[in-house]
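The records we work with from here on pair a chain with its fold. These numbers are not coordinates but entries in a learned vocabulary of local backbone shapes. To see the layout at work, look at the sequence and tokens printed below:
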Amino acid sequence: MELQIPEYYNFAAQVDEWAIQHPDKRAVWEVDESGAEQILSYDQLRRFSNRIANGLQDIGIQQSDKVLVLVTRGTLAYAVYLALLKVGAVIMPGSEMLRQKDIEYRVEHAQAAAVIAFDGVAEEVEPLKGKFSHLRHFITVGDAREGWITLSSLLDGQSDEFTCAKTRSDELAFLSYTSGTTGGPKGVMHVHGWPLAHMAVAAKQWLDVRDQDVVWATAGPGWAKWIWSPFVSTLGMGATAFVYKGRFVPETYLSILQKYPISVVCMTPTEYRLIAKVNDLEQYQLPALRSACSAGEPLNREVIDTFRRVFNLTVRDGYGQTENTLLVGTFVGMEPKPGSMGKPSPVVRMAIVDEDGKEVPVGVVGDIALDRNMIALFTGYLNDPERTAKAFRGEWYVTGDQGRMDEDGYCWFEGRSDDIIISGGYTIGPFEVEDALVKHPAVAECAAVASPDPERGNVVKAFVILKKGETPSDDLVAELQNHVKQLTAPYKYPRKIEFVDELPKTTSGKIRRIELRQREKQQVQ
């Protein structure tokens, strides 16, 4: 499958073209926990994002400026992302759960020019005011704050027409941060042409989005996955993005799928697992749902079997990374092999390779890799040529995951080849957890690894060596967990803590996390 990317492209301009042709069609359909709804048509979304774009331009946000976006689910996230693309700024997605340390790292590393934040996270941004000369603008989407521009004042008097920036397809558009095994998170660079490649595979052939669909993809706007499915795959196909602004409760999700005409859903394996465990699952009817996809980590066979038995629906697994797009999946019309990730995407030349970059025979475990010239591959890690170079092996980009290919061309996931922890769809670097833990006065040394969990796939487990005079206790476990939550995003905290006298190490003194991981796996077998 050959894709042609034009010299100039801007995703927001494509969405605007659809809005002009179909002004009254629903673009975003937001529902909160009380059942209250807010709906934006494509024309309303176009005009709203134009007003934001005009306001951003007026305060000095220019093409190629990097802007950290810390907003929650809802219509506003779509408008802000489109507005930034229209200006030609670079979007830095940020979770609303980030803490000051996480935010400061991203702002400084990327030399961000502005932060757009909602009330719940603004306090974490506040200490950054005046700290960096490049960070010129603080925009709040909530209440007025000293030294901040409110969104309402930004919009005041602005025209709802805007001429979209003429952006080259190879210009930087998205800068998503993903956890690494060492050091701080990596800034993954994607260009304006990336959505075209992503839509061709993920939207059309995996999610199977059509313009009449109502699409519920549950990822939050602080993640690359939000750009993947709720944003690009939905608006890019002219469909309606359904947004639920509430907590995940399995029964609530089932009730929503029963009540609203949602025809395409994309959730994390953890969400599917918990839904599959609901008592009397058969009482729920999902009449509109025809396409269901799962991404983030491998989905258990019993969950797939449950959805087939109860809803006559095949949940199609998919595999990709922040650095690329959907690489492997159970695509529309493909016979699934429960437990496998599916087959390589039509636009991806993928292989299982050894340490020398040579393809291994069928059935042999090796590194999952793809052609370094793949059209949707990232352009590198920002300001980090060393880590960028390490991601490549000859003609291949090496994902960091291991797998094997069977005789029918299906790919089977075997695990991470590094120490990254994937828990409930979140990617967590052990360094971030360890760095927070050792800041506690009771901790001498520690190591964080993935520990198997039936619902989340894995959870973070920390092996902790205490300083002399400190005594292990349940109270100390809780204290350490809260300590980590205060220093970094709460989803990274260690749900399990084991106090130990020593950690396995190499002769050069490096912690052998692989040994700890294997120990955890053996305990559940």
